[in-house]
Amino acid sequence: MKLPVGVRLQLILGRPGQASYFSSLIGYVAGEYLLVKIPVENGLTVPMQEGERVTVRVFSGVSVYTFSCTIESVLLAPRFYMHLSFPQEIESTPLRQAPRVKVNLQAEVRARVDNAQPAAATLTDLSISGAFIASGSELGVPGDRISVSFAFRVKPTNQEVRIQADAIIRSCRQLGANGKRTEPRHGTGIHFDGMTENEQFMLQHYLYEAENTVPP
């Protein structure tokens, strides 16, 4: 595992409710410690305690790395950061390049042309690289560029994440009737193009949680 400076980290604390926060890596000294920003929530730094155990999760794009550390020191001036003990053991879980997860997320789709009107749609499955969209009207033809906006919530904080990404239409087909609906439904397969690094991180986190959630 080679962590680049600035990589996003998920910090999971052993507090009631499995408190989870997002931070980033400032740097590290191999075999000694990690230097990590103190996470911020609602504009305020999250209180961190020296000696507290923390589980760190990192998404690399092809794997999910998980390891445990101890908060060795907390520094509040001149910047908010902390030292974490260097991990002794690192668990690596392969993340399929494009795991497809069944979802039901409301979305807004807009063609990438002047004066295009938004169309309501539903994402029915989702991956880090693309999605399948059901809609009441045709969204375009293969090769067309569109803009897609949708939101989801990540556990355990229930934080809402909004994604607005460009995409390319890869496939189109007509769907069958949906419940009481009798008008034609259209299915559109898209490939995301131009998603920001932060959007990719949060989407990977959402997909990982969705894949590993055991139904009650």
Automatic annotation (TrEMBL):
Gene3D superfamilies: Electron Transport, Fmn-binding Protein, Chain A, predicted glycosyltransferase like domains. Keywords: Bacterial flagellum, c-di-GMP, Nucleotide-binding. The keyword Coiled coil does not apply. Residues 95-208 form the PilZ domain. It holds the Pfam family PilZNR. Residues 5-87 form the Type III secretion system flagellar brake protein YcgR PilZN domain. It comes from the Bacteria. GO terms for molecular function: cyclic-di-GMP binding. The keyword Kinase does not apply. This is Flagellar brake protein. It comes from Noviherbaspirillum denitrificans.
